[in-house]
Amino acid sequence: MLNVENLFLQKGEFSLKKLSFNVEKNSYFVILGKTGSGKTMLLESIAGINEIEGKIFFEEEEITTLPLQKRGFGFVYQDFVLFPNLTVKENIVFSSRYKQIIDADALFLDIINFLQIEHLLERKTTHLSGGEKQRVAMARAIYSRPKLLLLDEPLSAVDPTFRNAIMKSLKEIVKRYDTTIIHVTHNFREASYLADHIAVMMDGSIIEQGESNRILNHPKSIEVAKFLGFKNIFPSSLLNENTLENVFSIDPNAILFSYTSSLTKYCFKCVIEDIMGISDHYKVFARVKEHLFFVKVPKHMFAKLDLKEGIKCYLCIKKKDIVFI
């Protein structure tokens, strides 16, 4: 549906570095990256706000130089950009001033019921909470019947108590309104819940892209794994396994301690170097040769193991919990 080929854009000292990716029709595509990685710049380039090098195709038609108002895309910024002088209803139907909306009345009723904002219609947007503003911004974008909906950190200004409800609504938009969504965020939880496919951005480049579950659980690069919060990344040679992957990772919650080496296939002699008590668990740092492992031990297990700094024991890993990178 959307094909981006070698997109390049220089702004000051920062640049988008020849980015290429595809977004399938009726899919939820998340661009995941830290603040300052170029996510919003990329979204604005797709929308037609920035003049770029490279090519953008939409439904097999090149739109690289097509003005933004002719692309038929919806855009929701993280600060919503609602019209403060208009009511909620007037904000939602604003696109009808410059384009004909098919089945406008039925669409309007469906949107306000879907997003549960009927009670807000006569209010001015200055009197709305962050979650309410987000729903109104989404309603306005959907009402314009966009071929592609672009969302810039749509949940960053929303109170956490409303975030789950809005994420559920976002997930349903694709099928309910026959549209495709590109959503940029720095939040792994949003990406995990919403995305069909993910592209990870760092410093203006797409480092890795693919199916959501694969990216989040089995990243191909150490750089992406560290960004996603993977812990305990060590050389695969430690396992004495024949593998093409150079390193592996193990979740701190999946590591076991034992006083025998027969608990699992992979049990290593270790020394407990540091222990930190947290509310419901202990953080334990154990050294295996020159490698320092970080382990989370539930309080009830910690008491049974009687772990202390300086003692020697075995650090054990189950094969099913190993992630090769």
Give your account of this protein's structure.
The chain is of the alpha+beta class and 325 residues long. The chain has two domains: 2-227, P-loop containing nucleotide triphosphate hydrolases (Rossmann fold), CATH 3.40.50.300; 233-324, RNA polymerase II/Efflux pump adaptor protein, barrel-sandwich hybrid domain (OB fold (Dihydrolipoamide Acetyltransferase, E2P), Beta Barrel), CATH 2.40.50.100. Helix content is 25%, strand content 34%. It has a six-stranded mixed sheet, with helices on both faces. It has a five-stranded antiparallel sheet with strand order 13-17-14-15-16. Strands 2-1-4-5 form a four-stranded antiparallel sheet, with helices on one face. β15 (281-288) and β16 (291-298) form a beta hairpin. α4 runs parallel beside α5 (160-176). The longest helix has 17 residues, at 160-176. It is elongated and about 75 Å long.
